[in-house]
Specification:
transmembrane helix, alpha/beta, disordered N terminus, 2 domains, single chain, membrane, Glutaredoxin, transmembrane, 4 helices, DUF3105, about 220 residues, DUF3105 domain-containing protein, six-stranded mixed β-sheet
Length: about 220
Amino acid sequence: MASAKKQNTPAAARRAKLEEARRKERARERRSRIITITAAVVVVAGLVAGGGYLMNEADEQDKAETAAKSSPVEGEKSWEKLTQEHVEKKVDYPMNPPVGGDHNPVWMNCDADVYTKEIPKENAVHSLEHGAVWVTYTSKASPADVKKLEEKVEATPYSLMSPVEDQGSPLMLSAWGKQLAVKSASDARVAQFFTKYVQGPQTPEPGAACSGGIAK
């Protein structure tokens, strides 16, 4: 009997070691699961919080855009009942830059186009008919303001920019039937004017092309 106990002792020891190893492995697995679950909860919570923040930001932006579109632009001038005939001649417009009236059959490209020289007003008016905003400036405008407005136009389809030396203010924005003079490119009304009038409700021909016209 003593001999049998001696023979069984090594086997029992191996089983004990194996069981201890399995116990430790199960403990490690439990710890790993706890860490994984905890990390997942943290990630999900972060996503939920971040998603909520982004949704709130989007809602606030939508509200701001809606307010900008519905509110009048302080200081803007308006013209109604503008003619829309296509003509091949120069037009004597009652405002400068013109914001509507008879115009050339071909539009100036207005797909975020910046022109460094004066462009034909009759072609630019056709661009306004398509829903573009036309930014104009004189040599009295500061280079910093001109640069900032160039960047705004270059980032905005349905807009164009060019110098108009004989206009009444160094910086002006025009849309069909609408015009605004500002003293600085940082004026909050610049962004409001773009938001309200790029393809805005004043557009006689919304969705018409702003490319495929004249590029000078």
